[in-house]
Amino acid sequence: MGCYLSTSKKVQNPGYEEPNVLASETPFTVSEVEALYELYKKLSNSIIEDGLIHRIFDLFDLKRNGVIDFGEFVRSLGIFHPNAALEDKTAFAFRLYDLRQTGYIEQEELKEMVLALLHESDLMLSDDMIEAIVDKTFSDADTKGDGRIDQDEWKAFVSKHPSLIKNMTLPYLKDITLAFPSFIVRTEVEDSEV
Amino acid sequence: MASPQPPPSPTLSAAATILGKYQILRFLGRGSFAKVYQARSLIDGTTVAAKIIDKSKTVTTAMEPQIVREIDAMRRLQHHPNILRINEVMATKTKIYLIVEFAEGGELFSKIARHGKLPEPHARRYFQQLVSALCYCHRHGVAHRDLKPQNLLLDADGNLKVSDFGLSALPEQLNDGLLRTTCGTPAYTAPEILARRSYDGAKADAWSCGLILFVLLVGHLPFDETNIPAMYNTIKSRNYVFPTWISKPARHIIFWLLDPNPKRRMKLDSLFENSWFKKSLKSQPESMFGLGFNYEQKCLASGSSMNAFDIISMSSGLDLRRLFETTSNEKRENKFFSSKKMEEVEAKVKEVGEVLGFKVEVGKNGAILLEKGKVGLVFEVFEIVAELLLVVVKVVDGGLKFEELHLEDWKIGLHDVVLSWHTELTM
């Protein structure tokens, strides 16, 4: 896969964080946080395959210590909640595509990502054609014409093309308690909090 | 509080909320396994029903895994218009909260209790909705097993909503009027269950449907005995009387459904061939391009152009949905690139669709819709740059069948216009 991919990352050490605290800081309810813990435990036991998904998990690792703890997992998934703010989603997508974390999406980075996707499709396109794809997008998005997309340009581009942050919303998160209902057995929520 | 009807709840305090998300408004009643309240979401103001299960009283520890399985079953049945939707589950150490759709019209049978029997066309409409919901469940491997009047609710528009799917394993607490016979046996229960034989859930549901149709048309139960053996004998000997106003075809259906022998009993899905049943039957929810058409609306209209970021976001690696899809391995989307002209690709898709026996339509946003049997497909074509198109093929329904039966045919048919197929990684 593309060279920007980080080394293999595991979700590990399912350290628990107070669900009430996480619920107060994210769009999730305390029950949803507990359901996410079931998902988190499930993921901890599986090694996530190589692929672009590491790029996302890299960004989940807020403390940058190579491990995604439960708090980071919930706070990051909160951005993907249908009720989360669009600005947060837009900003997350920017960080996702800013591969080298320079604060800009550069033409070279975009090309790398397009190549990785085409590689997934086993599609060999001529270099000219790939350049044409990237150039066309840059001519739209890079309004200042300095060869890179900054955060403001990105916001403007996303508001013109809302489909770009479609991946930043997971409708499934609204159903998380139905998808992992076993939390009802293990819940630690006291009734006094009701 | 201007609701004189429901009795006040024993525990309801004025400002009670459920985990800070729902405000409890009023006590609705006691379901078969839970207390039910009307509640309002503090987030978006929607009205819901909250079923509250007291863990300590109602549910033994051994039953909790059972409830977990049942919730899973209910989740799989969410997409039928006549099945009460479950929105979410919440829990504390002592309580489980099932947050479900609020059925504004209340119980169907309180209508009968108030106004007596229904005219045949009305009864038929509820019966059609009931059978449609049950057939949908049976196709998804879930039987209700516990159909009874308080599980038949009405929404604001008077449509039937069947509730409590799969919750039949939970304990019974109730004892009231129409719901039970004098001897206390569940009146709607099939004889093979009464006899404690092992039974087929779908057949037992068919029996209950026969009983419900009888009550809708007649206004009371066909059997009502004071003890179980007497009840059993009455059922076995089909000792019930049709009032004169019941039409012949309706009698036949009831007679076939109330066959005490589950092997001979009429199957619910065969009703769709019955002319009495089919009369003024509304378009089936199974029809993919009608009500049941629930594919995600893309922001991009088919035929529009796609930029480099759109291409990247197709990567399955950026699609976190894979983390949540716990049950199905079905691939819902196939994509291919093409270097032909848009019109040429669209014409080819239609041509291949017709050759393969699909019904072809063009949708509002330019997408090509195809339908054959239980399989529904949507083709959307996007331009990336001149001479490079991306075609997204969505499988709307019958995903597995599509993979098995049709994908290879499509690949062969479209060969001339395809540059390459996009293969998705699965987790």
UniProtKB/TrEMBL annotation, chain A:
Pfam families assigned: EF-hand_7, EF-hand_8
InterPro entries to which the protein is assigned, alphabetical: CNBL1-10, EF-hand-dom_pair, EF_hand_dom
Transmembrane segments: none
Keywords: Calcium, Membrane, Metal-binding, Repeat
GO cellular component terms, A-Z: membrane
GO biological process, one term: calcium-mediated signaling
Compartment(s): Membrane
Example GO molecular function: calcium ion binding
SMART domains: EFh (SM00054)
Residue span, EF-hand domain: 48-83, 85-120, 129-164
The protein's role, per its UniProt record: Acts as a calcium sensor. CBL proteins interact with CIPK serine-threonine protein kinases. Binding of a CBL protein to the regulatory NAF domain of a CIPK protein lead to the activation of the kinase in a calcium-dependent manner.
Subunit structure: Homodimer. Interacts with CIPK.
Protein family according to the UniProt entry: Belongs to the calcineurin regulatory subunit family.
Name of the molecule in the record: Calcineurin B-like protein
Organism: Lupinus angustifolius
UniProtKB/TrEMBL annotation, chain B:
Domain Protein kinase: start-end pairs: 22-277
Gene3D superfamilies: Kinase associated domain 1, KA1, Phosphorylase Kinase, domain 1, Transferase(Phosphotransferase) domain 1
Listed Pfam families: NAF, Pkinase
Biological process terms in GO annotation: signal transduction
Residue stretches making up the NAF domain: 301-325
GO MF: ATP binding; protein serine kinase activity; protein serine/threonine kinase activity
Binding site for ATP: 51
Principal EC category: transferase
Domain of life: Eukaryota
Catalytic reaction annotation: L-seryl-[protein] + ATP = O-phospho-L-seryl-[protein] + ADP + H(+); L-threonyl-[protein] + ATP = O-phospho-L-threonyl-[protein] + ADP + H(+)
Matches recorded under InterPro entries: Kinase-like_dom_sf, NAF/FISL_domain, NAF_dom, Prot_kinase_dom, Protein_kinase_ATP_BS, Ser/Thr_kinase_AS
Cofactors that this protein relies on: Mn(2+)
Keywords tagged on the record: ATP-binding, Kinase, Nucleotide-binding, Serine/threonine-protein kinase, Transferase
Enzyme Commission identifier(s): 2.7.11.1
Job of this protein: CIPK serine-threonine protein kinases interact with CBL proteins. Binding of a CBL protein to the regulatory NAF domain of CIPK protein lead to the activation of the kinase in a calcium-dependent manner.
Family: Belongs to the protein kinase superfamily. CAMK Ser/Thr protein kinase family. SNF1 subfamily.
Designated name of the protein: non-specific serine/threonine protein kinase
Organism: Lupinus angustifolius
